[in-house]
Amino acid sequence: MIKTRHDNKSRRLRKKLYLGEFTVLGMDLDCSLAGEDEDVWVDAFLDWLESQHLCFGGGVGAGQVSGYICAKGRYDSVTQAQWQLLHDWLSAQRHIKNVVLSSLNNAWYADQK
Fold this sequence. Notes:
The protein is built from 3 helices and 5 strands; from the N terminus they run αβαββαββ. Helices cover 29% and strands 29% of the residues.
């Protein structure tokens, strides 16, 4: 049996620290806006994310969108299916260029997957 560095922590502590089976996954987003009113696009983007039970933390300005996307629930993670839906939705937007979505990563600890 392979031991991880979380094995010595109780289930309760792993939950409080978002470790092991309580790891939360999200993704980084970077893209460019071209020829569209930023406010209109942000409203549509946030409405779409909300319909998928996702949330966005980051910024929009000077034609750039950069931030982090995670699931709304406290211990919920973004799924691979949601990653693909977001990628497809962004790619279908005519005024979005250079979409870069990271692979799913640990929302609480940058050095862990």
